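This follows on from our talk about sequence and fold. I would like you to pick a protein and set down its sequence and fold. Go ahead and set the record down below:
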Amino acid sequence: MKKILFACILFFINSSVFSVSDGSQWIYVESASVGTGMGYTGVASLQYAGDFFYNPASPSFIKNFTIFGNTTIFSKDFLLNAGVAIPLPYGVITAAGKFQNSKKLVGNVNAFQIGFSKALSKNFCLGFKGSFYNQVALSSATNSNFISDIGVAFDVGAVFILPDVFQNSDGFTIKKNTFGITIHGLGKPSAVHRDSPIPAMGFRAGYGFQWIETKNFNVFSSIEGTFDFFPSN
C-alpha cells in the first residue's frame, strides 16, 4: 500500500498574482530556471546558494566562495539574478544584483541586495537581507512618459531541518526534511504603479523532502505557498 501511495503522489502547484501590471509577477515569484517551471522557488532549500533570492537563510551551509545566478527562460519579460556567497568564520555574507527588462508597463527594475546567514545549530539556520530597488517605467496615465521610483526592503528568513521519518529497502523514504519561512518586503517599495509595488510585502513558507533514494536516482519534492498582502495575491 505504501508503494502505491508514494508512486501516486503528484503535486499541482500554481503561482498566481492578481491585480498587478504585466511583467511584475516575475519580481514577486522571483522566477528562476528551476523556479516557476517546476512550481518551486526554494524557500525550504539549503542546497543552492542561488536560493538566497527566495530565502536569505539558504546559503548558511556554503563552505566555499560561490558565484550563483538564475534567469527566466522562454519569456518576453527578462529577469536576471546574479551574486556571490562568501563564507566567513562568523557566517556567510551574500551580495547580489537583480535586473528586469519588461516590455510592458513595469519597465526596468534594478536592485542590489546584501545578506547575512548563519547556521545557529545543525538543525536551524537564520538569515537577513536588505535590498535597494530602482524602477523606471512608462506612466500608466499617458503610456508614453517615463517615470521612476526607488524602494528599500528588508527580509528575514529561517530554515528548520527536521528529523528523518523512515526509509525502506525498496527505496521509498521520507528524509532530508526541511521547513522554510520568510517575511519579505518590509520597508518602502518602488511604486511607479499603485497596483504593482515592488517588492511585494508578505510571507512565504514551504516544506521539502526526499521521498525516493536508489543507487541510480533520487527524487526530492517540495510544496510551498506565498501570501503577499501588499499587493494581495
Q: What stands out?
A: The chain is about 5% helix and 50% strand. Residues 99 and 110 are 5 Å apart (CA to CA). The chain has one domain: 18-230.
